[in-house]
Amino acid sequence: MNTERRISLEPGFVLHRKPYRDTSLLLEVFTGRYGRVGLVAKGARRPRSALKGLLQPFQPLLLSWTGRGELRTLTGAEPAERPLFPAGPALAGGFYLNEVLLRLVERHDPQPDLYPVYARTVSALTRGSDMEWTLRLFERDLLQCLGYGLLLGDEAEGGGPVQSGGRYWYHLERGPVPDQGGGGIPVRGETLLALASGLPPPDPQGRAEAKLLMRNALRLYLGDKPLASRALFRQFAGSKRPQPSGE
Description:
GO biological process, one term: DNA recombination
Family: Belongs to the RecO family.
Order of helices and strands: EEEEEHHHEEEHHH
Shape: elongated
Distance between the termini: 32 Å
Helix content: 25-40%
Strand order of the largest sheet: 1-2-3-5-4
CATH architecture of the largest domain: Up-down Bundle
Function: Involved in DNA repair and RecF pathway recombination.
Keywords: DNA damage, DNA recombination, DNA repair
InterPro entries: ARFGAP/RecO, DNA_rep/recomb_RecO_N, NA-bd_OB-fold, RecO, RecO_C
CATH topology of the largest domain: de novo design (two linked rop proteins)
Strand content: 15-25%
């Protein structure tokens, strides 16, 4: 159990907020040194509160809090830099990131490697980067940071490097196995190498294969409960929009 009593100016993001009592907020925030932290922001909903418009998702913050146990008390917050505001379908992508972190990251479990991945991904969504591939790389790095990383550049059980022109069946507990008649998730070698390198696949089939692989990998840990962020993607029906793998 994390026993720090006073934390000052810790970089973080609000993942989720909801009203608490008459004038306060319950927050779930994400930081690198302390992982996910539950905070009570007392009086943050009062009309004249300086925190009222600040404690929003995608705003890089410097957070201070006190207490111990599952729920701590926010004592201060200030902007660390300008807000990051994903727009359109990218906003749904941002809420998808937040929901996945809420589901998979335990409270008070430090995440020094995952925190910069999250910050970088939100920034990329805000800039209008290739949203579909940005989400795939976040999912790849998320699994790696949580200790569930996928074997992408090598064949399972010491079979040698993945071949770009090869065809594989991906077994989530083992890795890619050369095509020998079925079993697992079908994927081409060039798709695995694209995920390993971070460079997007050259064709729609590769993107579809990457999405299918990540969807199945995340399902092992997310379970079968649907993601609420899925509804946001439906609001953009008719527009070209990628959907998260963890649906």
